[in-house]
């Protein structure tokens, strides 16, 4: 597969993942917090994450596979340092997403189903912290990608 096609898949995945995190963190979170009480707000987040995390799973797989393929085709030893930094940060971001998706999100869903709002809010806050870390890492990763130009 030519480099341009791999890069297209890679950057499309990045847009879906990072763009979705920006929307959730900076738009939906303050809007939901100021207009909804926990019994409405937590089911909204649970339903929204259910859909978003499906997309992110596909995006993360596409980003890692296309990024790994571009590095393999260039040769790991010949790849600029920025690409290696991107690989490292990308793997950390994927691990944080996996933790949110596999560990925290099922807890949020079960608290919502049991109408346990304080416990659900505590889990939601941990998801928010994970997303905040990934947002900072994504800015660093994009900087690493562009530093190699
Ligand atoms: C396993 C993880 C990753 C690997 C191995 C990887 C590898 C690569 C490679 C080889 C390129 C091509 C660079 C070029 O053609 O100049 C690239 C481009 C890019 N990557 Fe990654 N990447 C990974 C994860 C990420 C993540 C998580 C992000 C963002 C959050 C990201 C953002 C970008 C951007 C914005 C470009 C376009 C850079 C440009 O065209 O100048 N990458 N990546």
TrEMBL record:
<feature type="transmembrane region" description="Helical">
    <location>
        <begin position="6"/>
        <end position="28"/>
    </location>
</feature>
<feature type="transmembrane region" description="Helical">
    <location>
        <begin position="131"/>
        <end position="148"/>
    </location>
</feature>
<feature type="transmembrane region" description="Helical">
    <location>
        <begin position="49"/>
        <end position="69"/>
    </location>
</feature>
<dbReference type="InterPro" id="IPR008457">
    <property type="entry name" value="Cu-R_CopD_dom"/>
</dbReference>
<dbReference type="Pfam" id="PF05425">
    <property type="entry name" value="CopD"/>
</dbReference>
<feature type="domain" description="Copper resistance protein D">
    <location>
        <begin position="47"/>
        <end position="145"/>
    </location>
</feature>
<dbReference type="GO" id="GO:0016020">
    <property type="term" value="C:membrane"/>
</dbReference>
<keyword id="KW-0472">Membrane</keyword>
<keyword id="KW-1133">Transmembrane helix</keyword>
<keyword id="KW-0812">Transmembrane</keyword>
<feature type="transmembrane region" description="Helical">
    <location>
        <begin position="81"/>
        <end position="100"/>
    </location>
</feature>
<protein>
    <submittedName>
        <fullName>CopD family protein</fullName>
    </submittedName>
</protein>
